[in-house]
Design a protein that fits this description.
By secondary structure, the chain is mostly helical. It has one domain. Helices cover 62% and strands 0% of the residues. α2 packs antiparallel against α3. The longest helix has 26 residues. The protein is elongated.
């Protein structure tokens, strides 16, 4: 028989992978766009500007993943975090991967030239903030205490 314990799990408790939040919002925006197209930029600008932003998103994600690997900690929210990363993009933003996903959504929205896909970023960010970031921050404060609070005070969430 298993004993019950009051100890909290050593992870953030995030149940829904953040990339799926952005994928769902893009899909909803695309469905709306198919019914009622609404452009963001002139068609001559959308392909190259969209691709540029998508490339920047991938660069930011790659630089962020590099720091996770260097610190030998995980980026998976249901696994234990072993370090607070302050190097690379984490020196400028506490959430560079979420910033990269946001930039990716803007880039895809411009590339497809869909205002609806861009508008859907707002609800995605609300869900991200309330269902993911809030849980991650509570976990990191509980696990790392003053170290995380000092980091949080010195580095902005986004930029």
């Amino acid at each position: 028989m298993r004993e019950s314990t009051s100890a909290q799990p050593d992870h953030s408790g995030v149940k829904f992978p953040p990339p799926f939040i952005f994928a769902a919002s893009l899909l909803i925006g695309w469905v709306i766009h198919r019914k009622w197209p609404l452009r963001i930029v002139p068609p001559t600008v959308s392909p190259w500007l969209g691709l540029l932003l998508v490339a920047l998103a991938f660069l930011l994600a790659a630089l962020s993943f590099r720091e996770f690997f260097r610190a030998r900690t995980t980026f998976v929210p249901d696994r234990p975090t072993t370090a607070i990363i302050r190097t690379g993009p984490f020196g400028y933003t506490r959430n560079p991967l979420y910033l990269a996903l946001s930039l990716l959504q803007v880039g895809v929205s411009i590339w497809v030239n869909s205002a609806w896909m861009a508008f859907m970023l707002a609800p995605a960010l609300v869900v991200l903030r309330t269902r993911v970031i809030a849980r991650e921050e509570r976990y990191l404060e509980r696990k790392f205490g003053r170290v995380y609070l000092d980091y949080k005070a010195s580095v902005r969430r986004w930029l």
